[in-house]
Design brief:
Layout lengths: L1 H31 L4 H9 L3 H28 L6 H18 L2 H15 L4 H29 L7 H24 L4 E3 L2 E3 L4 H26 L7 H16 L9 H9 L7 H45 L1
Antiparallel strand pairs: 1-2
Amino acid sequence: MLQNRKKLIKKILNWAGLVFFCMAAAAIYSQLSRYSPEEIKHALFSIPLRSLVYSLVACVFGYFVLALYDRLAIRYVGKTLAVWKWLLAGFLGFAISNNAGTAVVSGAAIRYRLYTGWKFRMHEIFSMIIFSGVTYFVGCVFIVVVGYFLIPHDIEGATIVYVAFWPCLAALVAYFSIATFYKKDVTIGSYSLKVPSTGTAAMQAMLGMSESLVSSLVLYLLLSPLVEIPFSAYVGVFVVSHALGMLTPVPGALGVFEGLFMLLLPIPEGYEPAVFGALIARRVVYFLIPLIIAGLIMLLMYAVPYIKKHSKCKQAH
């Protein structure tokens, strides 16, 4: 009975990645369906081709930095893995979780399937998932703290940043205090997790900040040909909007990021449609295109073993 239950749980986890992919696709469709094809087409075609190409390159670097979450988690559990494998796991995990939301759950489903195939044990995968979730959270709160000093404080909506700054600073100080002084393992259910060192905690914070800065280039490269906004003013607004949006349960921070960004950014009068167009283009470049690529890869992952299994059955008969 227990064995059958374990098999059922494993089967559910194996197919959960596909379910979350469908949820991510639905979230993207819901966001883009608010606009007519003409609006989306006009928004994209108003951006120079060179800027689109540059933003795609920045997108590639952004997902590489995201994949380093997996690399750091693998090191945390004391394992080694080929570069292409953690790059694949990181890309697929974040291409789905960026769109489906609940990064720890939706990204974990596809990672479970991959890492079990690479002979990782269940407690190692669980530890990696928890560690990556903590890294994601630490990165977000660190971004808000840094963004507080980057964002112009005389702009409309800066009160949101003031309110978010102190809880995020407190959370960051608490986490680094635990990493520095608490040396015992933490028990969650039947699993025991070691507390990261201060150096690892610093790497988690810097990794989150690096990802936000690289992903900020995707939008800035799309926006800069249309609106003249100093990068120093832009980057503070982006990192705060990005972090606060990712801390919400809304899939991909749909609407949340855009609303905060439009509120905080000092947009010259009459340029709102251009900013809106760049935001749509960012959704396509940083969310939709990676999701499509991830979907094609997952289609091969799920279809090839199924085809092989059935071809063997036919040969046996």
